[in-house]
Design goal:
Aspartate Aminotransferase, domain 2, alpha/beta, 43% helix, transaminase activity, 7-stranded mixed beta sheet, 3-stranded antiparallel beta sheet, 393 residues, Aminotransferase, 2 domains
Length: 393
């Protein structure tokens, strides 16, 4: 195996060198070799892609749909997304110049930050939240301001928002994820309208990460793009709604003046999204609007089961209204050392979870459990955790 020449050891970007790999993936890899481990670590739907969506992809393959497509995505797909957003958010997006098809939500968010942020810009991120946000902001030279929402049951309040904006001055952007990974908390319409009014008055660009919008249980999903489309970039996709995580199909919708700039970086990053995934997405959006219903019903049942079992064990949980995660306070004897608790749980109880500190400020002392798993696997995990706690006592 070749080793890098010692004279080239510093031939790396200094900012990249300082960034740690994904704490979620890193911890998952660390414990995955434990024999008999019940893994509830990754945000991976355990359902299959709906059959009619798969068949659309097969038809695309058979039709030799295997060449470079438009960098912005197939116009037919952009029209399907625009129609979907009109029906669900009541916003009219022009598929010609107000929309991009992206390689999942991850690429969408990366393209946004690298296109719009300058060194020294301030970006506001309510936490705990998906840890991708932190490095993609930092690498642009912008300042990532993590705002801990744990004192408010993991929901950003108007009072907290106004206080933080007053404290930090000229904030350029906020990235708001709802329903939220890792807490599962969702935002009702009245609260979003209050938050949106403050952001509107302060001229803050809103990046609304709505990847879990089809998986809300106790309320209808509402979007900030509905009330302030002129200053909102809506990010979503089909990873969670249609169990298409591996297909890497996302999108961005927003004002053309911003989309035209994001388009440049998007093209440099991926050239274009693969044709077959787009064929499947067209089918999903045009003829599969009801597909997430069955997933949602099953996730809600699993949520109720996991929350009930864990609360009986003494865990403190802010009940998730969406997504498929439970964010639980760890036992008091571990203090805020969620990493050692999660590691001990994996080794002794054979249950894999993610330490809450992986999700930024306010996540310390918590664990994230994904209930995107079979009833049998969840029951086994709950039994193992209960036995583990009994032994601790």
């Amino acid at each position: 195996m070749p080793e890098l020449a010692k004279s080239m050891e510093n031939y790396v970007n200094k900012d990249v060198k300082e960034i740690r790999p994904s704490a979620i993936r890193d911890f998952d890899m660390q414990i995955s070799s434990i024999p008999g481990l019940v893994k509830l670590t990754l945000g991976e739907p355990d359902f299959n892609v709906p059959e009619h969506v798969k068949q659309a992809a097969i038809r695309g393959i058979q039709a030799n749909d295997s060449h470079y497509g438009p960098a912005a995505g197939k116009l037919e797909l952009r029209k399907a997304v625009a129609n979907y957003l009109k029906d669900t958010r009541n916003v009219d997006y022009n598929p010609e110049d107000e929309m991009l098809i992206t390689n999942g939500g991850t690429e969408a968010l990366t393209a946004i930050t690298f296109s719009l942020l300058n060194p020294g810009d301030k970006v506001w991120v309510p936490t705990p939240v998906f840890s991708l946000y932190f490095p993609i902001i930092t690498l642009t030279g912008a300042e990532c301001i993590q705002v801990d929402t744990s004192a408010d049951d993991f929901v950003l309040t108007p009072e907290k928002l106004q206080s933080e904006l007053d404290q930090h001055g000229d904030v350029k952007m906020i990235i708001l994820n709802y329903p939220c990974n890792p807490t599962g908390r969702a935002y009702p319409e009245d609260l979003l309208r209050k938050l949106g009014k403050i952001l509107h008055d302060q001229n803050v660009l809103i990046v609304a990460d709505e990847m879990y919008s089809e998986l809300t249980y106790d309320q209808e999903h509402f979007s900030l793009a509905t009330i302030y489309p002129e200053q909102t970039l809506l990010v979503s996709g089909l990873s969670k709604s249609h169990a298409m995580t591996g297909w890497r199909l996302g999108y961005i919708a927003g004002p053309s003046a911003l989309i035209s700039q994001i388009y440049k970086i998007h093209g440099f990053l991926v050239t274009c999204v693969n044709d077959i995934a787009q064929d499947a997405a067209i089918e999903a959006l045009n003829n599969g609007r009801q597909d997430p219903d069955a997933f949602r019903a099953e996730y809600k049942k699993r949520r109720d089961y996991v929350v009930s079992r864990m609360e009986k064990m003494g865990f403190d949980i802010a009940t998730p209204e969406g997504a498929f995660y439970v964010f639980a306070k760890i036992p008091a004897q571990f203090g805020n050392d969620d990493f050692n608790f999660a590691l001990d749980l994996a080794k002794k109880a054979k249950v894999g979870v993610i330490p809450g500190s992986a999700f930024g400020a306010g996540g310390e002392g918590y664990i994230r459990i994904s209930y995107a798993a079979s009833d049998e696997k969840l029951a086994k995990a709950m039994d193992y955790i209960e036995s583990y706690l009994d032994n601790l006592e």
